[in-house]
Amino acid sequence: MRRNIQNLWEEFSAPLRGFIRKRVAKEQDVEDILQEVFLKIHASMGSLREEEKIQAWIYGIARNTIIDHYRKDPGNREVLVLPTDPELELAREPEEDLSTNKEIAACLKVMVEELPEKYRQAILLTEFGDLTQAELGRKLGISLSGAKSRVQRGRKMLKTTLLACCQVETDGKGNVVDYRHKDKNCKYC
């Protein structure tokens, strides 16, 4: 069933307004961005191929519109409120932000803890810590290529474990926009 723009407005305008308000300081900008998001939705509705993914599609448009807003007016960048915690980078829609992020972050934390020591250390220090891969190499007394290899292998192990446990949906840039547990008895989630 195809939805019309009025139905989308009724369903998504309030949650989108909250989503935008968390990321933009000026109320006038919030309203302008919300209107721009719905103009883009209306203009692009024909490009939506999978109706069941409409929510992720709409929030992707909203995120991109917020980014465009800050690109147009670099003077406002200091008010941009973006998540800095890796757990929050997996954000979906606003009403599910905290619970969904906590769920998947809890899964990932358990998965990281079960990695072999050298890969766990590499992931924790680079992905969750502040070290670059070059700094990791120096800290561990290994070459840069050795550090990169450990991080890549650790990521690959995490991805394999996550995909065995969950069905993950990403956007074109590889950001997680949705996930579902494959097995309710998964030991990680």
Structure description:
Belongs to the sigma-70 factor family. ECF subfamily. InterPro entries: RNA_pol_sigma-70-like, RNA_pol_sigma-70_dom, RNA_pol_sigma-Z, RNA_pol_sigma70_r2, RNA_pol_sigma70_r4_t2, RNA_pol_sigma_r2, RNA_pol_sigma_r3/r4-like, WH-like_DNA-bd_sf. It comes from Anaerotalea alkaliphila. Keywords: Sigma factor, Transcription, Transcription regulation. The structure is a single chain. By secondary structure, the protein is mostly helical. Residues about 75-100 have low confidence and may be disordered. It is built from seven helices and two strands; from the N terminus they run αααααααββ. The protein is about 60% helix and about 5% strand. It has helices at about 5-20, 25-45, 55-70, 95-115, 115-125, 135-140, 145-165, and strands at about 165-170, 175-180. The protein is globular. The protein folds into two domains: about 5-80, RNA polymerase sigma factor, region 2, helix turn helix motif (Rna Polymerase Sigma Factor, Chain: A), CATH 1.10.1740; about 85-180, Orthogonal Bundle (Arc Repressor Mutant, subunit A). The longest helix has 22 residues, at about 145-165.
